[in-house]
Design brief:
The structure holds two protein chains of two kinds.
Chain A: E1 4-12, E2 21-28, H1 47-52, E3 56-59, E4 80-87
Chain B: H1 10-19, E1 21-24, H2 30-51, H3 79-85, H4 87-97, E2 102-111, E3 136-141, E4 153-154, E5 173-174, E6 178-179, E7 186-191, E8 196-197, E9 207-215, H5 229-232, H6 249-253, H7 264-280, H8 290-300
Antiparallel strand pairs in B: 1-7, 2-9, 3-7, 3-9, 4-6, 4-8
Helix pairs in contact in B: 2-3
Chain lengths: ~90, ~300
């Protein structure tokens, strides 16, 4: 049986997995098989809530060095957590 | 609502600095809205001809070149020119980028009825400079756009984030994002850095939108209606964690969007304060003391022991 990935990105308010979700993206390699995402927006209120619903964390953001002169700039959302589910 | 001279108020300017956009519902009169789509249709055809290497054709308005002063773009009897020359529109433009800005480019965004075209979020052009100057982009919707009927999607307050144009496509949804819908004649004014995306048009009518980017040709300092400036412009002591005002520019700039939670919002406030320093020509302006605290200490190291 072929396993396919569902990938869920959650951008959280801070660097801790139990902080609030502020952004999200979903990519479904299983083409609709498997449990759907909750219809709520965001689908999970925190990263921890996604773990409790069966998502596996595959990447969390590491603290990064601050570049002198750019410490106060804002750019991409820093707190990007990536989860997967594997669907048969 | 802008001031009586059609220029923006200090409060509106502060909201633009905070959110990266302003919205003016049904600003353009129906006598322009009703007839302008024919001109947009001709302009769209000319632009597409040029893009694919065909002669532009003689019908429709003369297309301006980049760097043309706005006052020389779309002379009468162009309805686009009439729209851009409305005192209400000129007042908004002048408040943000000064008088007679330069034409950068424009485009007719027609979404056919039933279009499934779906853009990722993006920033126009390329990674921006680090200085606080900015261009504006006008989004003019000459027809009613129903909810979900192909209006532009955008994320308020993303305009001060320095990113690559395509790098923000990874964000499918952010809390507080909006999709435009509204009455005919509505004008949206975006800071050039605001993240936005075209959306499908499931409705049964084509959706027309005209977008024009304008570059300032003079300093952008204090170009708006200054009647409420002294009353609203705060000093650097306006500080949430000490004594704060609720009627100041700082209060507008500390109002965050739903996606700006946690400590991240403080860096956003610093960027907004930096932009307001430029616009107000006040190098010590601050919101919640973040710049001032650091600058105060920074001065000590310059002093002899």
């Amino acid at each position: 049986m072929v396993m396919r990935q569902q990938i869920l990105y959650l951008w959280l308010a801070e660097g801790a997995l139990d902080t609030e979700t502020v952004g999200w993206a979903f990519h479904d390699g299983a083409s609709g098989k498997g449990p759907p995402l909750p219809e709520a927006e965001p689908p999970y209120p925190t990263g921890l809530a996604a773990l409790k619903e069966g998502w596996f964390l595959i990447q969390s953001p590491a603290p990064y060095s601050l570049h002198p002169g750019a410490e106060y700039e804002v750019s991409y959302l820093a707190n990007e957590f990536i989860f997967e589910r594997r669907i048969e | 609502m802008p001031a009586t001279d059609h220029k923006l108020t200090t409060h509106e300017m502060a909201r633009f600095v905070a959110d990266g956009f302003l919205r003016f519902d049904a600003l353009i009169p129906d006598e322009i809205n009703r007839h302008i789509i024919e001109e947009l249709r001709l302009l769209e055809a000319k632009k597409i001809n040029l893009i694919v290497g065909l002669p532009a054709g003689d019908e429709g308005p003369l297309q301006p070149a980049s760097l043309t002063p706005l006052s020389q773009c779309y002379p009468a009897p162009s309805l686009l020119g009439a729209m851009l020359n409305l005192p209400e529109v000129q007042g908004i433009i002048e408040s943000l980028v000064g008088p007679d800005p330069l034409f950068d480019h424009d485009f007719v965004h027609r979404l056919p009825a039933g279009s499934t075209y779906h853009q990722h979020l993006h920033v126009d052009a390329v990674v921006d400079s680090t200085d606080p100057t900015f261009d504006i982009q006008l989004f003019y919707f000459p027809q009613d756009v129903t909810q979900g009927g192909g209006g532009t999607r955008f994320v308020p307050a993303t305009h001060l984030r320095r990113t690559r144009a395509e790098g923000v496509g990874r964000y499918q949804h952010l809390l507080g994002e909006q999709q435009y819908s509204g009455a005919a004649g509505t004008l949206m004014v975006f800071h050039h850095g605001l993240w936005h995306a075209g959306q499908p048009n499931p409705s049964d009518i084509d959706r027309w939108m005209y977008k024009i980017r304008l570059n300032p040709s003079v300093s952008q300092i204090k170009r708006w209606n200054m009647e409420d400036f002294d009353q609203m412009h705060n000093d650097a002591s306006d500080h949430t964690f000490a004594l704060m005002r609720h009627d100041s520019v700082a209060q507008v700039l500390r109002t965050l969007q739903p996606w700006q939670k946690g400590h991240e919002g403080r860096y956003e406030q610093m960027q907004r304060a930096r932009l307001w320093r430029y616009l107000s020509n006040d190098p010590v302006f601050d919101v919640d003391y973040y710049h001032t605290r650091i600058e105060q200490r920074g001065r000590l190291i310059m002093e002899p022991g």
